[in-house]
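I had to read the description of the data format several times before I understood it. Each protein is reduced to its one-letter sequence and a matching series of backbone shape codes. The format is easy to grasp once an entry is in front of the reader. For illustration, here is how one protein appears when written out as sequence plus structure tokens:
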Amino acid sequence: MAQNDLDQRHLETLDRDLNRFSALEQATAYASRPMMGLGVSLVFILLAGLVAFYLFGQTGNTLVVVIAAGFGAYMALNIGANDVANNMGPAVGANALTMGGAIAIAAVFESAGAMLAGGDVVSTIAKGIIAPQSMQTASIFIWAMLAALLSAALWVNLATWVGAPVSTTHSVVGGVMGAGIAAAGFAAVNWPTMYKIAASWVISPVLGGIIAALFLWFIKNRIVYRDDKISAARVWVPVLVGIMGGAFSVYLALKGLKKIMKIDFSSALMIGLVLGVIIWLVMIPVVRKQAEGLENRNKSLKKLFGIPLVVSAALLSFAHGANDVANAVGPLAAIVQASASGGFADAVSIPLWVMAIGALGISFGLFLFGPKLIRMVGGQITKLNPMRAYCVALSAAITVIVASWLGLPVSSTHIAVGGVFGVGFFREWDSQRRMKRARMTVPQAVEQPKEERRRRKLVRRSHFLTIIAAWVITVPAAATISMLIFWIISSYMGGAS
């Protein structure tokens, strides 16, 4: 008996030790993940420098180009960690995609967009933010672009760590502006362009939010609140998917295929109209087959929006890769051209190896660091399901089209997150409206206490305020960091020369 008790105590001790060992293994694996990400990122940055050294050739400016390639790789990693979350977050939050599936789709389509349809030309000094003639020498221009690239990357890195999705394009713009001010004073900045960018802080999220809210209102009124939801879905889901197909056709024609072909706005609209009608007709029998046997409840409707949501996420990633990656690697391309030719007043062509650094960097950054922002955009601002996430994705495409028609500058990041806010605030408004109507119908219903109403808000105010603050200070913060970096570089390089 005593031996049995002793054996039992030994087994319990062994179980406790094994549990401790298992917990230690899990803690070690959790702690090692950030270290692994940093290690892979450092290797990628070093490889980018080696590629630049090999392809650029050994000249007097080789070291500068190698350093710039490292900065460009660092910036691309941060784009993958931050910006891509806006395209994939809604689909993951709605459980239409797993995290692994989202990362795989985004890596493929972001890279394809960057390599196949990426911006073939970026106008001088990041789209006319500063005047070329204000730069006295090619060396000062190169220092300014180095400062802009590093400051933008540092700011996006900080925003990702805080958990705020910010515009990488605005970060680059702020970096270029700050370096230009440090190099040539405030007169060097193209202030009308900066005013337009400042206006986009308001225009992008508001327009994206309104359009997303309108589509959610339409879906609720035409499908969700109907007695026979499935019959209503058979009619309207093909129409909505057709609208999405047409909108994305116009979006890609205007923003994603500039390198392959030039398409004016009216032609893009005609293409979108034709393809939208075709997709609508094709989807009628598809949705009818999908709807067979579905129960007449809201949960059944999610199945009908799943595939369109995945497709929209992939198309958004392709367009983002084509449009925004070129902006991010633009300063690197400008440094390469100025280092090779000594000139910096002409339009800047982006070499293939520079675009490759941008495309691969985005994929690595997304894989290593992207899940944090994807979860935040997809589920921590407001709860998303396939219908709500579909409205966010559709609003992103339509907002870009409307903005192009009106000639307004917009940020894809601000549009997507604004769409999430729009969906969340519409849900709050709709919930309060329905509760008031219920109280009018049932007078004896007890109104909820104020504290309970505040707790039941459907948009997390802390995330809302953090993100808005990050948007507002992106350009001035990146500009300030860039000015400091430019002064350090110029003092060191000037002293060295």
In short: The longest strand covers residues 121-122. The chain has one domain: 40-496. The two ends are 87 Å apart (CA to CA).
